[in-house]
Amino acid sequence: MKELVEVIAKSLVEHPDEVTVTEKQSGKTLVLELKVAPSDMGKVIGKQGRIAKAIRSVVKAAASREDKKVVVDIM
Fold first, then answer.
1. Of 11, 44, 59, 6, which Cα lies nearest the Cα of 72?
2. Which of 4, 7, 13, 65 has the fewest CB atoms within 10 Å around its CB?
3. Which contacts (CB < 8 Å, 24+ apart) does range 17-20 have?
4. How large is the average pLDDT for residues 50-70?
5. What pLDDT score was predicted for residue 25?
6. Angle, alpha carbons 58-61-63 (nearest 5°)
7. pLDDT, position 56
8. Is the pLDDT of residue 26 over 90?
9. CA angle (64 as vertex; 40, 7 as ends), nearest 5
């Protein structure tokens, strides 16, 4: 899941070297924290959060195939 979020985020931003994704296990839920450069934050979130919502939907669909619960937090 971590690699999936990294690939998606790096394709959206202007500074792909500043994209970091960290994994944290919280009970049965895997939390992925996405950090990007401050200037790229708008590109990752999108208008009214549409891109962020799409990223979460893709990750949720991939996680459901493995019977896991994954949450994506954008920092």
1. 59
2. 65
3. none
4. 93
5. 92
6. 110
7. 95
8. no
9. 30
* Per-residue tokens: 12: 């959206």
Q: What share of the chain is helix, strand, coil (3-state, %, to 5)?
A: 55, 25, 20
Q: What's the one-letter identity of residue 23?
A: E
pLDDT in tens, 35-54: 999 999 999 999 999 999 99
* CB distance 59 to 2 below 8 Å: no
The whole-number pLDDT of residue 74 equals 93
In whole angstroms, give the CA distance from residue 14 to residue 50: 19
Specify whether the CB–CB gap between 37 and 13 falls below 8 A: yes
CATH of domain 2-74: 3.30.300.20
How many Cα atoms occupy the beta-carbon half-sphere of 39 within 13 Å?
A: 5
Please name which of 48, 49, 52 lies closest in space to residue 9, comparing C-alpha atoms: 52
